[in-house]
Each structure stands twice: as structure tokens, then as C-alpha cells.
């Protein structure tokens, strides 16, 4: 498993993050799932491979939602960085194993739904099929009219996390929003001053998405003292930039720091004006020089 995969699993595995994702995507922003009602679910299941060999398979993150000491729902999140053309089959195997487990349990446990989401963190929207039916059709297997009603209609629910509409991003108010704004609206990321509840997990997630080692280097700062926002991180980075700027020029250090953190051109101009007392035209000129 790569570092990026581990970072994604650890991030969505935070109970508050998991609850926020389910509420934002499944329940359209309503606070239905509460983190205090979540318990870790099974991520490993088994299936029979070639030659009767028993093999195992792992989900990325699984949580039981508990109600009155009974399982109400089993939620599962699968992280993807690129399109997997056969993902419907993979998820069907995972969900089938979860239902098979219920078959073996005592009737007093009841039967609960299994809900699975695919989170695509990749730089391109999902381009593959989203149902077993589509997969069969794509393989050019002829389906007779008589067979139609018997065909398994299982489908997967994929969310392209970099391309969520603004009205969907607005449903999130916790650490998930920090990551979504980083991916889609970095100006808002700074302006909102959202406090980060899980600083190490968020910093590692941002590193996994950007490969910028500065996020790893800033974990001790973000964990120190009270909860901090990305704005606090920017201020700290700017202070370092100003210190370096005494050698390479203050404005150059500030602009380079803003650009490294993904801050947009206009916000960088505003920061330069604020810190160095420059006029609008002069600030624009200097940012363009080092951009």
C-alpha cells in the first residue's frame, strides 16, 4: 500500500470525518449520522480463489452506525485516485461478503443495510461504468429480453471529490471542507479560517494530494496549542518567508510562500499590500515579477 493510500484511509477513518462525509454525500447535509454512534466495521473479507484457494480482500474504511446497541447501517468508503473500470464487481464482492456475514448471524440481530461510496480523489472525473449492467453491456454480451428482469442491477455511487459543485461543498463544515477547499477553492480555504480538528491527518492528506513536503514539516506547528486553521499556517509560513526575505527580498519570499501553499494571485497581492504597505498597482507588479 502506498503512502497516498494510507493517508487517505487514515483521514476518512477519523470518526468525525467519516460522519461528515456520510452526512454530506448521502444525507445531503443533514446531521443524521453522529460520530459517537460509529464503531469500526470489518475491512477484511474472504472469498474462494482458483483451485479452492481462500483469499482475502480489504475495504478502505468501514463503520457501523449503532442505534440502541444494535447495528442500524454499515457504511463503507472506498478511496480511488483513478478510474477502475471493474469497480462495480469489486464493490459487489465487498457488499456481498457483508450480507453473507449477516446470513450467518443470529436472527435476533436483524438485517441492516450495507451502503458503499467511492471517493475519487483523482485529478480527472470518473470515466468508467457505475453498474454491473453497464459493465456487461460494455463487454458486448447480448442480453435477451427474457433475461432482462433477472439481471443484477447493482451499481456504485462515485463522488469526484475535486469536482463537487459549490452547493455540495457548502454542506461540509469540518476537516472535509478544508480538504475540499484546498482542491477546489483555495481562496475560500484561507478566508473561512476553518479550525482543523485532526491536524496530522489533514496535513498528511494534503501532502498525499499535493506531494508538497511542507505539509508534513508543519505537523508539529499545527498540533501545538489550540486548534489552528490554514490561515494560521499561512501566517506562520509568511513569517518564515519574511525572515528569508531579508536575504532574498521580502516581497519575493512572501510571494513564493503564497504560491507554494496554493494561494491565488489576487490573494497574494492582498497579502503583499497588507504586509508591506504597498499600493495596489505596485503590489500587482511585484507579485507578477516573482509568480
Proportion of strand residues: 5-15%
Structural Rg? 23 Å
Separation of termini? 36 Å
- The strand count comes to 7
Mean pLDDT over all positions: 85
Task: State the helix count.
Answer: 15
* Helical amount: 40-55%
Reading the helices and strands in chain order gives HHEEEEEHEHHEHHHHHHHHHH
Name the quaternary structure.
single chain
Low-confidence segments, given as residue ranges, are none
Biggest sheet architecture: 5 strands, mixed
Task: Report the structural category.
Answer: alpha/beta
Report what the structure shows.
It is a single chain. It is elongated and about 75 Å long. Helix 3 links the parallel strand 5 (70-80) and strand 6 (114-120). The mean pLDDT is 85. The protein has helices spanning 3-12, 15-25, 87-104, 132-138, 145-148, 166-169, 175-184, 186-192, 199-210, 214-217, 219-223, 230-248, 250-260, 265-276, 280-290, and strands at 38-40, 44-48, 54-58, 61-67, 70-80, 114-120, 158-160. The chain contains 15 helices and seven strands. It starts with a helix and ends with a helix. With 291 residues, the protein is α/β, with parallel strands linked by helices. The protein has a five-stranded mixed beta sheet, with helices on both faces. The longest helix is centred in the last third of the chain and has 19 residues, at 230-248.
Amino acid at each position: 500500500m502506498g503512502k497516498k493510500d494510507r493517508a487517505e484511509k487514515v483521514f476518512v477513518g477519523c470518526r468525525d470525518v467519516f460522519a461528515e462525509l456520510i452526512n454530506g454525500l448521502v444525507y445531503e447535509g443533514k446531521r443524521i449520522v453522529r460520530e459517537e454512534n460509529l464503531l469500526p466495521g470489518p475491512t477484511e473479507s474472504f472469498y474462494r480463489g482458483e483451485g479452492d484457494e481462500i483469499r482475502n480482500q480489504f475495504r478502505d474504511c468501514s463503520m457501523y452506525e449503532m442505534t440502541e446497541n444494535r447495528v442500524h447501517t454499515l457504511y463503507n468508503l472506498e478511496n480511488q485516485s483513478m478510474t477502475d473500470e471493474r469497480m462495480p464487481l469489486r464493490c459487489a464482492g465487498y457488499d456481498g461478503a457483508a450480507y453473507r456475514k449477516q446470513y450467518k448471524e443470529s436472527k435476533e440481530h436483524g438485517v441492516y443495510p450495507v451502503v458503499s461510496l467511492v471517493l475519487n480523489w483523482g485529478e480527472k472525473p470518473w470515466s468508467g461504468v457505475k453498474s454491473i449492467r453497464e459493465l456487461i453491456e460494455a463487454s458486448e454480451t447480448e442480453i435477451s429480453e427474457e433475461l432482462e428482469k433477472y439481471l443484477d442491477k447493482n451499481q456504485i455511487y462515485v463522488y469526484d471529490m475535486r469536482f463537487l459543485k459549490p452547493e455540495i461543498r457548502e454542506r461540509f463544515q469540518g476537516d472535509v471542507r478544508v480538504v475540499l477547499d484546498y482542491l477546489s477553492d483555495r481562496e475560500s480555504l484561507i478566508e473561512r479560517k476553518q479550525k482543523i480538528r485532526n491536524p496530522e491527518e489533514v496535513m498528511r492528506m494534503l501532502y498525499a494530494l499535493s506531494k508538497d513536503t511542507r505539509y508534513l514539516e508543519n505537523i508539529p506547528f499545527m498540533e501545538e496549542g489550540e486548534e489552528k486553521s490554514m490561515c494560521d499556517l499561512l501566517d506562520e509560513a509568511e513569517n518564515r518567508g519574511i525572515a528569508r526575505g531579508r536575504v532574498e527580498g521580502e516581497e519575493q519570499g512572501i510571494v513564493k510562500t503564497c504560491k507554494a501553499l496554493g494561494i491565488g494571485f489576487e490573494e497574494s497581492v492582498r497579502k503583499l499590500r497588507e504586509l508591506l504597505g504597498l499600493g495596489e498597482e505596485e503590489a500587482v507588479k511585484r507579485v507578477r515579477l516573482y509568480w
